[in-house]
C-alpha cells in the first residue's frame, strides 16, 4: 500500500469518528452552536489598465489617453461650432484677454509692478558678484522701429481649416485654424480650472457640458480608436483641481457616466496625482498652468485642505505682459493683436523661446522670428530685446505687473451650499454634532481668523513698497478652522455661541467675511503663496517635509533658470526658525526627467494600477441610484 492510499484511509476513518460523535451528542441532547452560513467574498474584478481612460482637462490643453499609454494625446481644449442659422452673430471666447484689464487704474498698476520688478532685478547680484546694468526700453525701441520684415516665401504654406463640407463642429488645431469669415463660434469650455460659464452664446451650463462631451468623445473616437458604443467596457479617471466647484464636478461625472456611458469613474485631485506621477510621498505641489496657479501640500497621498490656495493668474498672463513689454520696445510685427487667436499662438511661442529667469543674461540681444499665417507670405522679423525677457516671467512673483483690477485673484475652497441629492452632508453633521464640539470648533475658528487678519495687515503694509513679506503666515488655511482632511466640516462651522468675554458670533462672522473678501481681492506672488501654503500645515515636522520637497508642475514656469530663481526667493523669505530646522530646501521641476506638463496625467495613470483604488470606483448603477452621495463616500478627498 502506498503512502497516498494510507493517508486516504486515515482521512475516511477520521470522518467516520466525527459522525459517530455527532450522533452521541444528539442522543445526549447537547446543543451545538449553529454555524453562520458562509458569505462568499465578492470577487475582486481584475481591471485591465488598457481599459481605463485618464482625462486631465486643462483650461488651454486637454490631455487624454489610456492608462497604459506612454504619453497622452495632447490637443488645444477648444471647439468651433457651426452657426445654426445664416446671418448669426459670430462669437469667439477670449484667449489672452480677460476682465479687469481696461480699468482706469490698470496701466498705473502695471507701471508700479514693473518698477518693483526692476528693483528686484537690480538688487540681486549676478554670479560674478556684479549688479546687472538695467537696459531701458528706449534703447531697444530706437532699433526695432527701423526694422522691416524680410519675405521668406510668397506662400506661408499654412492653410485655413477646410469647411467646404460644412462639419457641425471642429476640435483642437482644426478649430484654431477656422477662417474668421466662416460661420463658426469658437469656445474654450474651461477657464481657470472651472467650467467657462458666461452670458454670451454657448456660455450656459448645458452648452459648456455639451462642448466638453463633444471634444472628449471626438478625441476618444478619432485619436484613441475607441468606438463610443464600447465605452461601457471602459472606466475613467478624471483629474480635478484642488479647489473645485462641487456642482461642476457633479455635472461632469454625470456626463461621463450617463451620457458618454463609461462603466465606472474615479475622481481625484491634480496635486495628489502629481505626487504619484513624480514618485514622491510628500510634497508642496505648485501647479503653474496657463490661467491659474494652484498650491497644495500633499502628504502620503492626502491633500491638506488648509494648505490649498488658487491664484487666478498663470502662463497666459505672462504672455500678455510680454506683449505689452514688446510694444514698449517697438515690436516690429505691428499688426499683432491680442484678439487674434493666431497672433496669440505666436506670442505664446515667443514667450516660450525667449523668456527666462537667468540673472546672468543681461544687455541688449538680437533675435529673429517668423510669421506664417494663412493667405499671407512667410515673413522673417529681427527684434532687439533687453530686460523684457526677464521682466515678463517675474510677473508671477509681482502679479500687479499683470494690470488686473477689480477681480478676485486668490480663490479659496468654500463650504458646500448643500445639495438636495446629498442630505447627510456637512451641514447635517454640523447640526447634529455635540455642543462641546461646536464650542471648541468655534473657538478654534476665532483664533484662526484673528491670525489670518494679522497676516493680511502685514501684507497690506507691504503692498505699496518694494519690501517683501517675510515669515510664514496662515492666510488661506486660517479660513478653514484647522480641520483635518477627514473632518466633517469644511471651514465655516460656527454653530455654537462663544463663552463669556468672547467676540459675539455675528460680529465674528462679519469680520471673517471681510477678511476673506480682502484676501481674495489681493494677488499674492508665487513665492509668498508657497510660504503661506506650507505654513498652513499642522505640524513643524510636516512643514519641514514640504520645504525639502517643493514640486513645480504645469507649463507656466518652464523658463531657463526658474528652479534656481525660485529656490533663492524661497530661502530668502523663509521664517528664520525654519532655516535652522530645514537641512535642504529643494525645488523639483523635472522629476525623473519628465515633462512637468504631463506629471499629473501620468499620476492618474499610476493611480489606475494601484490595488488601493479598487474601493474608489463609482459604478454607473451606483451613480444612477445614489447620485452625488457616492462622491462623498468614495472620493479620496473630503467632498
Automatic annotation (TrEMBL):
Entry's localization field: Chromosome; Nucleus
Gene Ontology annotations of biological process type: cell division; DNA recombination; DNA repair
Main location (coarse class): nucleus
Compositionally skewed regions (Basic and acidic residues) per UniProt: 1-28
GO molecular function annotations of the record: ATP binding
CDD domains assigned: ASKHA_NBD_Arp8-like (cd10206)
Low complexity bias (residue ranges): 433-442
SMART domains: ACTIN
UniProt keyword list: ATP-binding, Cell cycle, Cell division, Chromosome, DNA damage, DNA recombination, DNA repair, Mitosis, Nucleotide-binding, Nucleus, Transcription, Transcription regulation
Presence of the UniProt keyword Lipid metabolism in the record: no
Purpose: Plays an important role in the functional organization of mitotic chromosomes. Exhibits low basal ATPase activity, and unable to polymerize.
Similarity comment: family membership: Belongs to the actin family. ARP8 subfamily.
Full protein name: Actin-related protein 8
Amino acid at each position: 500500500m502506498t503512502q497516498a492510499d494510507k493517508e486516504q484511509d486515515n482521512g475516511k476513518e477520521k470522518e467516520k469518528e466525527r459522525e459517530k460523535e455527532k450522533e452521541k451528542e444528539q442522543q445526549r441532547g447537547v446543543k451545538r452552536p449553529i454555524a453562520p452560513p458562509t458569505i462568499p467574498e465578492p470577487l475582486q474584478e481584475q481591471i485591465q489598465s488598457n481599459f481605463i481612460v485618464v482625462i486631465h482637462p486643462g483650461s488651454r490643453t486637454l490631455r487624454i489617453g489610456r492608462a497604459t499609454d506612454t504619453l497622452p494625446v495632447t490637443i488645444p481644449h477648444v471647439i468651433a461650432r457651426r452657426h445654426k442659422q445664416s446671418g448669426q452673430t459670430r462669437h469667439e471666447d477670449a484667449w489672452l484677454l480677460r476682465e479687469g484689464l481696461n480699468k482706469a487704474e490698470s496701466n498705473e498698476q502695471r507701471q508700479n509692478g514693473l518698477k518693483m520688478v526692476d528693483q528686484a532685478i537690480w538688487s540681486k547680484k549676478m554670479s560674478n558678484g556684479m549688479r546687472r546694468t538695467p537696459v531701458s526700453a528706449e534703447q531697444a525701441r530706437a532699433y526695432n522701429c527701423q526694422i522691416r520684415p524680410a519675405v521668406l516665401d510668397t506662400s506661408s504654406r499654412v492653410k485655413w481649416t477646410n469647411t467646404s463640407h460644412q462639419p457641425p463642429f471642429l476640435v483642437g488645431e482644426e478649430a484654431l485654424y477656422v477662417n474668421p469669415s466662416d460661420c463658426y463660434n469658437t469656445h474654450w469650455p474651461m477657464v481657470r480650472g472651472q467650467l467657462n460659464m458666461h452670458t454670451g452664446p454657448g456660455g450656459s451650463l448645458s452648452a459648456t457640458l455639451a462642448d466638453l462631451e463633444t471634444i472628449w468623445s471626438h478625441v476618444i473616437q478619432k485619436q484613441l480608436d475607441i468606438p463610443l458604443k464600447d465605452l461601457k467596457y471602459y472606466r475613467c479617471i478624471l483629474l480635478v483641481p484642488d479647489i473645485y466647484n462641487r456642482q461642476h464636478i457633479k455635472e461632469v461625472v454625470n456626463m461621463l457616466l450617463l451620457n458618454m456611458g463609461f462603466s465606472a469613474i474615479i475622481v481625484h485631485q491634480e496635486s495628489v496625482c502629481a505626487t504619484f506621477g513624480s514618485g514622491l510621498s510628500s510634497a508642496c505641489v505648485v501647479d503653474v498652468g496657463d490661467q491659474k496657479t494652484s498650491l497644495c501640500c500633499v502628504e502620503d497621498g492626502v491633500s491638506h485642505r488648509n494648505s490649498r490656495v488658487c491664484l487666478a493668474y498663470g502662463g497666459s498672463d505672462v504672455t500678455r505682459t510680454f506683449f505689452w513689454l514688446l510694444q514698449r520696445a517697438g515690436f516690429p510685427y505691428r499688426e499683432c493683436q491680442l484678439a487674434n487667436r493666431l497672433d496669440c499662438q505666436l506670442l505664446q511661442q515667443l514667450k516660450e523661446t525667449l523668456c527666462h529667469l537667468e540673472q546672468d543674461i543681461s544687455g541688449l540681444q538680437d533675435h529673429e522670428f517668423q510669421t506664417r499665417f494663412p493667405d499671407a507670405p512667410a515673413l522673417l522679423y529681427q527684434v532687439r530685446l533687453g530686460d523684457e525677457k526677464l521682466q515678463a516671467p517675474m510677473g508671477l512673483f509681482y502679479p500687479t505687473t499683470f494690470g488686473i483690477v477689480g477681480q478676485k485673484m486668490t480663490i479659496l475652497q468654500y463650504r458646500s451650499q448643500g445639495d438636495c441629492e446629498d442630505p447627510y452632508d456637512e451641514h447635517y453633521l454640523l447640526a447634529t454634532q455635540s455642543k462641546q464640539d461646536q464650542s471648541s470648533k468655534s473657538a478654534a475658528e476665532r483664533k484662526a481668523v484673528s491670525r489670518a487678519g494679522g497676516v493680511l495687515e502685514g501684507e497690506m503694509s507691504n503692498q505699496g513698497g518694494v519690501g517683501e513679506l517675510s515669515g510664514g503666515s496662515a492666510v488661506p488655511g486660517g479660513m478653514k478652522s484647522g480641520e483635518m482632511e477627514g473632518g466633517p466640516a469644511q471651514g465655516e462651522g460656527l454653530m455654537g455661541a462663544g463663552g463669556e468675554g468672547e467676540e459675539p458670533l455675528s460680529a465674528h462672522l462679519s469680520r471673517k467675511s471681510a477678511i476673506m473678501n480682502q484676501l481674495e481681492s489681493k494677488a499674492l506672488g508665487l513665492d509668498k503663496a508657497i510660504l503661506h501654503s506650507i505654513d498652513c500645515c499642522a505640524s513643524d515636522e510636516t512643514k519641514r517635509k514640504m520645504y525639502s520637497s517643493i514640486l513645480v508642475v504645469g507649463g507656466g514656469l518652464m523658463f531657463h533658470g526658474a528652479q534656481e530663481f525660485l529656490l533663492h526667493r524661497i530661502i530668502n523669505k523663509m521664517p528664520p526658525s525654519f532655516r535652522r530646522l530645514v537641512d535642504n530646501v529643494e525645488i523639483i521641476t523635472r522629476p525623473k526627467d519628465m515633462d512637468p506638463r504631463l506629471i499629473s496625467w501620468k499620476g492618474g495613470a499610476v493611480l489606475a494600477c494601484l490595488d488601493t483604488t479598487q474601493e474608489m470606483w463609482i459604478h454607473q448603477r451606483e451613480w444612477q441610484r445614489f447620485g452625488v452621495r457616492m462622491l462623498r463616500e468614495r472620493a479620496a478627498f473630503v467632498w
